[in-house]
Amino acid sequence: AGTGMEPALLFFSEEMNQRVKEHLRIESELREALANGELLLYYQPKVSLRTGRIVGAEALLRWRHPVRGLISPGVFIPVAEETGLIMELGNWVIEEACRQIRRWREAGLAMPPVAINLSARQFDRGLPQRMADALERHGVHPGQVMLEITESLLVRGADSVIAIMNELVAMGLALALDDFGTGYSSLAYLKKFPISTLKIDRAFVTGLPHEEDDCAIARAIVTMAQQMRQEIVAEGVETREQMAFLRELGCDQLQGYLFSQPIPAADFERMMGDGHRL
Ligand code: C2E
Ligand code: CA
Ligand code: CA
Ligand code: CA
Question: Buried-most residue among 79, 152, 191, 227 (CB within 10 A)?
Answer without folding.
Answer: 79
